[in-house]
Specification:
Strand order of the largest sheet: 1-2
Order of helices and strands: HHHHHHHHHHHHHHHHHHHHEEH
Number of helices: 21
Largest sheet: 2 strands, antiparallel
């Protein structure tokens, strides 16, 4: 048994372990969209989702580079965050819903699973796997979109008749797919192909009234364009982004009546709060239009700030916010704010610092020379923006995966620098003849020395023993 374990730990690097880890990473990364597809096609139950997430996490941990692990600053911050969450859970309990506690455990385990991942995520295999899931999600959304096109009871399309959040989940995965593609070296042909293929998913998901995710995609792709190391690459990224935005606007315009309804509610929400000032930080609950997502979020944020101001060092307890909010059974919809309210201000600060360290100056400079770092930086920005408006800490597996992989990329930064230097110098050849370069006396520039100019120098100094 011990010999088998030793052989497992000393497995050869040329074996297919990185490919297996890449497959498992992609499955865990797309767990929610894959669960929607499995439930709709094969009528699987919650057990399949649990097996998908828990099995992928355990497998990824088993395939990790345990022998090569070297601690990073981000690992220390994450361990401190775990300690703060653990103390809060010990003091306040695991919460009223055990399933959410299990999901929280899997979400936190995603960080070490990605931190030890032996595969390079921003690769062709990852793109193909995620692209297949996005294509499948687009195809299953189209029939529901056509059926509910003018249905006033379903302004947001419900996929398979059950999942109203499925278009947003597919769009999120679509955003990560675009970031992984644009992190790689693009050509004009590839850029045109990606722009053309991206138009259909963007049109379909925008017609399903997915809005904020497209804003996050635009911001993340602008970040990707900003850290690109060539002007031509920036043009290609902006071209793909332009195609996605045009297709998204076309999808919103195609269902103009539904789009106009959401625009009217947004304008009405801003005007009402400005004129009447009904929202306040008072403990009493104001009347909220539950059809308006903006009004709901404003009240949730007010409740979160009110509870945060109570000064509980380790929070009010996991999943206790829905029981104390003015809108029952509704989370705060912001992962950093939820962490601060339910686990305490210290946990919230550590969570924000961990995110900031993964998109800091080191990741920027690594992103200038390496596609993995470019993808990670833009992906962390994208996942963070989504977590600010739609986040729930027990459902943030993509964000924790990206944070863990950002720590792995940062730790391998010296390797990326060496690879960049090797690739930069691969076309440069050193002269085999030391006399092939000579310094001119006037300009100081290097010029080839003629063969006959070397003889006087040799005669002047003689042999090595005669040198002064």
């Amino acid at each position: 048994m011990f010999r088998a374990m030793r052989l497992f730990l000393e497995r050869p690097s040329g074996f297919a372990w990185p490919q297996c880890a890449l497959l498992v990473f992609a499955v865990l990364f797309a767990a929610s969209p894959l669960a929607v597809l499995a439930h709709g096609w094969f009528a699987t139950g919650p057990w399949f989702t649990a097996f998908l997430m828990a099995g992928s996490t355990a497998t990824l941990l088993a395939l990790g580079r345990w022998r090569e692990f070297e601690i990073d600053t981000r690992d220390v911050i994450f361990c401190c965050l775990l300690l703060a969450i653990g103390i809060s859970l010990a003091l306040n309990g695991i919460g009223p819903d055990q399933n959410e506690f299990y999901l929280l455990t899997l979400t936190l385990a995603a960080y070490p699973a990605a931190r030890l991942c032996p595969a390079r995520v921003s690769s062709r295999g990852f793109i193909l796997l995620i692209g297949a899931v996005v294509a499948a999600g687009t195809l299953v959304t189209i029939p529901s979109l056509i059926e509910q096109w003018s249905d006033p009871n379903h302004p947001k399309v419900v996929v398979f008749g059950l999942y109203d959040a499925a278009p947003a989940q597919f769009t999120m995965l679509f955003g990560f797919l675009l970031l992984s593609i644009t992190a790689r070296q693009l050509t004009s042909r590839r850029a045109v192909l990606v722009a053309g293929l991206s138009a259909m998913p963007a049109f379909v998901f925008a017609a399903c009234q997915v809005r904020f995710t497209f804003v996050a995609i635009a911001v993340a792709m602008l970040v990707a364009a900003g850290i690109a190391n060539q002007a031509r690459q920036r043009v290609y990224i902006l071209m793909i982004l332009g195609a996605v935005l045009v297709a998204g606007l076309a999808g919103s315009a195609a269902r103009w009546e539904t789009t106009k309804l959401f625009l009217h509610r947004a304008i009405e929400s801003g005007t009402t709060s400005f004129e009447s000032g009904t929202t306040s930080l008072d403990p009493g609950c104001a009347s909220v239009d539950t059809r308006n997502s903006i009004e709901i979020r404003k009240q949730l944020y007010i409740d979160a700030i009110r509870l945060l101001a109570k000064g509980d060092s380790f929070g009010i307890g996991f999943e206790r916010f829905p029981t104390m909010s003015c809108i029952p059974r509704t989370q705060v919809h912001s992962a950093p704010l939820q962490v601060a309210v339910e686990f305490g201000p210290l946990a919230g600060v550590l969570f924000v610092i961990l995110i900031a360290k993964c998109i800091g100056a080191r990741m920027y400079w690594l992103g200038r020379i390496n596609p993995e770092a470019r993808f990670v930086l833009a992906a962390v920005v994208f996942a963070t923006i989504l977590s600010l408006a739609h986040g729930r800490i027990s459902r943030e597996i993509p964000l924790l995966l990206m944070l863990g992989y950002a720590a792995a990329v940062s730790r391998r930064g010296h390797r990326f620098a060496m690879e960049w230097m090797r690739d930069s110098l691969k076309d440069y050849t050193m002269p085999s003849d030391p006399w092939s370069f000579a310094v001119s006396g006037s300009g100081g520039a290097c010029r080839p020395a003629k063969r006959e100019e070397r003889a006087p120098l040799v005669r002047q100094f003689g042999r090595h023993g005669d040198l002064p």
